[in-house]
Design brief:
CATH superfamily of the largest domain: Thiamin diphosphate (ThDP)-binding fold, Pyr/PP domains
Number of helices: 24
Shape: elongated
Radius of gyration: 28 Å
Strand content: 15-25%
Number of domains: 3
Mean pLDDT: 97
Strand order of the largest sheet: 10-9-11-12-14-13
Bound molecules: thiamine diphosphate
CATH topology of the largest domain: Rossmann fold
Distance between the termini: 82 Å
Length: 637
Amino acid sequence: MFERGFTASELTDEQVAEMQEHARQCRGAILTMTSAAASGHPGGSMSSIEMYLTLYHHADLRPDDPAWAGRDRIVVSHGHTSPGVYTALADVGFFPRDEAVAHFRQAGSPFEGHVERIVPGVEWDTGNLGQGLSAACGFALASRLTGGGWHTFCAMSDGEQHKGQVAEARRFAVRHALTDITVLMDLNGIQISGHTWEIMPVDVVADWHADGWRVIEVDGHDVGKLYAAVREAQADDSAPVCVVCRTVIGKGVSFMEDTPKYHGSPLDDEQYDAAMAELGLEPYLEETRARRAEAVQVAEMDIERPALPVDPGTPRTYTREKDADNRGAWGTALADLAVANPELPMAVLDCDLIPSVKTAAFAEVRPEGFVQAGVGEHNAATVAGSASVSGVLSFWSDFGVFGVDEVYNQQRLNDINMTSLKLVVTHCGLDVGEDGKTHQCLDYVGAFRNFFGWKSVVPADPNQTDRAVRACAALPGDFAIAMGRSKLPVVLGIDGEPLFASDYEFEYGRVDWAREGDEAVVMAMGTCVGASVDAADELTTDGMSVGVAVVSCPLDLDDAAMQKAVAAPLIVTVEDHSVRTGLGASVAEWMADNGTSTRLVRLGVDRYQSSGAASDLFAAAGLDAAGVATALRMALG
Ligand SMILES: Cc1ncc(C[n+]2csc(CCOP(=O)(O)OP(=O)(O)O)c2C)c(N)n1
């Protein structure tokens, strides 16, 4: 047993010898599990193993209570070295080692090819290289905002130092003085296709220095020196510290050492026997293969998307007397939430768009929760995600094209990590206006359609925005609340009163009816609702009966509302979104799944439009009131 919290000033000779023995046993386990699975990454696992043992033996963790709130957070960014991580976690008692060795990379087992949170002791699913340091920044930020007081460690590889997101995260850590992050970098000089200096040379020491980190270099296989370096790094409050561990891939088995092949190739039976003999260990591949046929015994971590106790405050009501924009309503609701929940840790990530995404009011009332990430969206997406699983109500606001399209894989990885991020994207659709094609985010529903967890909310006016923001803040899971840029007329009900005010409550998935009618139903989303209501009113004046359904949750259609809509002979969907993948696609899918054959006309965006006033772009795309009315008249004959 070693003391936790890096309290001992140094390792004794006996402890060094003990740790070396742990490392030897772990190397044998790494080779056995990868050979039994006939896949996996033994080389980097063997170069990183002393790093992992140092962290898991000495960080402030409770292997018998892996979810203990005050634990130090350890993120392993090079998730392919899972054999090293699993054997080190087992070494300190998180689960029986045999289970991980026998069931590595086996269908149904938690011991997946890349580290996953379902394994006790793993904090963040990785494997998409370059994202781990950002996750560590989110954990460190959460420690500060919640007062949790934990230290955050991040293990990284040298291959991933090519990635731009790593540089974004380095600068973010320094900008926010996240000095309680310690990085351990496995500098083994090898990646998949060869040596790092052949693939893409990176001067890691200079890079980390240049961004304001302190760098300590150490022999990553000398457990005594490694312990001392990490202890020194952890205690340093002047800057975040990167401990560069000089290592050898495949360390401990001569024919594997410094050989790129063993980045990702397991040993065959003959090589395995030779390697185990060199390590001085008895082979146990046959027994492992036999155990592989047995059921997995280990208890997985029970992971839920967190929901925090949020007081929604008092909703605001916007009226027709003064047009307002949805983004202004979002910014005001956000500041209201901060005021209504003074004790609730909140973070709002910004990527240099304060005036546009309307987060200034929040920054005013909760300056410590306002987190500037600069033009570093990949980092911001991951920071916001990991903070959201650590007791922080976490928002990120950006333009749609940056918060959705720029960071598709980061949002996908957030989903896999069961985050509870509230993404508020403005300037979506043609409503971005004069910024033109490059800024037209036309897939804010379609992109999230591909993920299994994300929910998409597209409010119709400032009143619905206000209530949706307050409601989503209290819900578990990832929500993308998408809106345009323009000021919008408040949507009125048939009684002439604001439809989304008074006793209206936002309920995820519910469709709201702005008009009733049975000759046709217009199903409209977001910015297009106002024009759709105007068009329906125009046709009603001409004696036709046209209903308008306001769909704010296009990925989860309300069955009762759909049954009502398909009772009409015609449905027209209207959206400021790609007509291929948004609301129209959802309605078509629902109709096909439910065997209905109502005529469907889909209005939306079918090409990137030019740069110009949003009203002109809507008119050109047939998405203004005149365009919707014309489409209705044509379809109704
Ligand atoms: C973003 C991303 N791009 C590509 C890959 C594919 N990939 C897996 S491991 C690896 C090279 C890794 O080098 P290093 O992390 O230094 O690993 P080592 O050989 O030391 O184990 C690559 C390119 C990936 N996992 N993630």
